[in-house]
Amino acid sequence: MRVPMTEYLFIDLDTERWLCRICGHDLGDARGNYKEGTLVYDRDPREIHPPILDPERYEFTFSPDPAFCRILEFCCPQCGTQIEAEYLPPSAASSSSAARSAVPRSRPSTCRPATLRRWT
Hints:
Strands 1-2-3-4 form a four-stranded antiparallel sheet, with no helix packed on it. A four-stranded antiparallel sheet has the order 7-6-5-8. It has one helix and eight strands; from the N terminus they run βββββαβββ. It has one domain (33-118). Strand 3 and strand 4 (26-29) form a beta hairpin. It has one helix at residues 45-48; strands at residues 2-6, 9-12, 17-20, 26-29, 39-43, 70-75, 82-88, 117-118. The protein is elongated, with a radius of gyration of 16 Å. It is mostly beta strands and 120 residues long.
């Protein structure tokens, strides 16, 4: 039996697996963290929250400083659907793992499996 956990995440109670609700891709064991089966992108917060004020004239622009804020996007490796996003201080590890590989910053606005790396 598949139970919806979030807008884009199922848990299959019979097989105890996490599944993407869009394409049905298996994201891993339900006894573990589903984020380990996703692709992750470390976004520049200025891409998501552009400055409201001119950064040349003002120190504070209402845009997060990348030195103090990280935004991680977790995506299905098969269909590219963004499953979750986390806002973190720069030195903090994500809730799924303390160690992970660097992820490229050059990608389109939607998650693309060909340009992202696995969460490690």
